Hints:
It is a single chain. This protein is of the alpha/beta class. The protein has helices spanning 27-42, 53-57, 61-76, 91-103, 122-131, 147-150, 159-172, 191-200, 230-233, 241-256; strands at 12-16, 48-52, 81-87, 109-112, 134-140, 153-154, 157-158, 175-176, 179-180, 182-186, 206-208, 224-228. The longest helix has 16 residues, at 27-42.
Amino acid sequence: MDFLLALSRPPLVLGVDPRPELHGPEPLSHLRRYALEVFEALAPKLAAVKFQLAFFEALGPEGFGLLCELASAARVMGLPVIFDGKRGDIGSTAEAYARAYLLRFPGSALTVNPYLGLDTLTPFFQAARESQGAVFVLVKTSNPGSGFLQDLLVEGRPLYLRLVEALARKGEGYREGEWSRVGMVVGATYPEVVLTVREKAPHAPFLLPGVGAQGGRPLKGPGLLNTASRALFYPGGRPDLEGALQAAEDFHRALVE
Length: 257
Ligand SMILES: O=C(O)c1cc(=O)[nH]c(=O)n1[C@@H]1O[C@H](COP(=O)(O)O)[C@@H](O)[C@H]1O
């Protein structure tokens, strides 16, 4: 599966950030069953499923096994997969991260941190092209303190915009048809930034986290993949299949109709 197929699906991404304490006495087996049920029920309304690696790593070795199992299940259901790892390191280590998440899981996407420099992103871009995957580069994150570094003025422009300009130039080389394999992460909590960044990067798919629990509202537009974790996976603060379906329908109405 080519990850760019996600761009022709409904523009909602299901974030899976598992909280074992919400899954009773046998949390992993309950979580496995619940996640599969949610994938099945929501699949027609989703662009992709985004797995937050930290939450799976926190479950220990079994958690990593479960991540691989759920990612494979999503793919079997026709759902593109995003690994949210926010990886970033010197080139040789970046190559290992790219092998782990883009080449071992062809057609998937990975979130990456660009603040070690653009040279460190090249292995991710190359792996994404080779595997028909994608890379989502953190540009302007959804958290309240993101401006401390990301909004710093550099030659009169915020740092995140300088980054976007450089990425858009690089991303042209990784463009296929309408969309590039070099995507960007912009918090839905900063809707005005989404518009500014879109002007500079017309071909980049955008991942917009912060919808729902962080107060961001769904944003409509070509290539805008709205992503919600708690609001979709744990509506009302707990596992609830009916509630998840209702939440997905509400987002779908706001984004598609
Ligand atoms: O890359 C991300 O997905 C991400 C970037 C960002 O700027 N803000 C952000 O919240 N995220 C992730 O998006 C998810 C948000 O979770 P909810 O607030 O529950 O929807 C978490 O997995 C975060 O790690």
